[in-house]
Amino acid sequence: MYFTEFLKLIRISFLKFRFHPFKGKTNVAKATQQPIWNQQISFAWTYPSLAQTFLVQLLVYEHLQWKCTAEYELHFDEIAFKDKPAMGPTFIHLYDNLSGSHYVGRILMEIRSECLDADPVREIRITNVPQLDEKRYWVEEHFLVEFLALQGDFLHACNASNCKISVKLAEHQSNFIECYLKSYDFKKNQNLSFNLKCFRNETPYKAITLRAYLPDNRTKYTSDIFLQELVDFVKYEIEAFKMFQIQYALQYQSQVKVLRAIIMTVINRIKIANENKRFEHTGFRDPTTWDMNRLIFLKDYFVSSCMTS
């Protein structure tokens, strides 16, 4: 398990972790605006176990005391593949414990697990490791994301006549657009609060725009594109087969032949896709652990389906 960097303007900090019955902490990063720990945490335990939650806490030295600024929970049963918890390398994003909308920073980390033949010593080890190079796994591109705030209902705004709306993604902040609030036209016999307001935007709409550098993972999902194409093809053929059944209601042998032809066409498409490696990673970067597990699952599932058929 790797802990590498934390991106936020702080002075003194360290990471504390807990996984029952293990607990420990990284080295203290001092006098830096971008702490880098580059430490590996190793421990042995029986899986599955009653303990499934791995807790990561960020502690910052402020006002002559250590303060837990943010924490993040990882559940091993949710990231396990074939009984082996694994994740990343990837960033986990942290938000302030007291203010959930306040972004604190992000941690680059990786989780790996392996089966041991002998019963190991139940102890925790913390060692220094080389820095993870995230450029091996993804490339960041500039994205422009647009949102339209068309309407809002049942807003609690007693004396306000307008409101401002924006979008926030981690450390990225969009522009603000102003919306003018209106009161509902309630009848006297309706038991509703008169503090509730609404807004309706009309053309020309003002867009909320967010510009950010984000990992471009589109090349990793060629298999998903193929699967969507396959699903669309099956839906189209099934609808056509239903029309064929209505038109030739009593010709059961012909219906069986048509249905068999549809099934064989789908199987052949899957076989050709497997031969052309459309289920494999086609990106320009190294696959992460999650990428490899996901592709193994897809390939095993469809290959076994073809063999069964």
Automatic annotation (TrEMBL):
Primary location class: membrane
Tagged with keyword Hydrolase: no
InterPro entries reported for this sequence: C2_domain_sf (IPR035892), Ferlin (IPR037721)
GO BP terms in the entry: plasma membrane organization
Keywords: Membrane, Repeat, Transmembrane, Transmembrane helix
Cellular compartment(s): Membrane
Domain of life of the source: Eukaryota
One GO term describing the cellular component: membrane
Cited PANTHER family: FER-1-LIKE (PTHR12546), MISFIRE, ISOFORM F (PTHR12546:SF60)
Protein name per UniProt: C2 domain-containing protein
Taxonomic source organism: Glossina pallidipes (Tsetse fly)
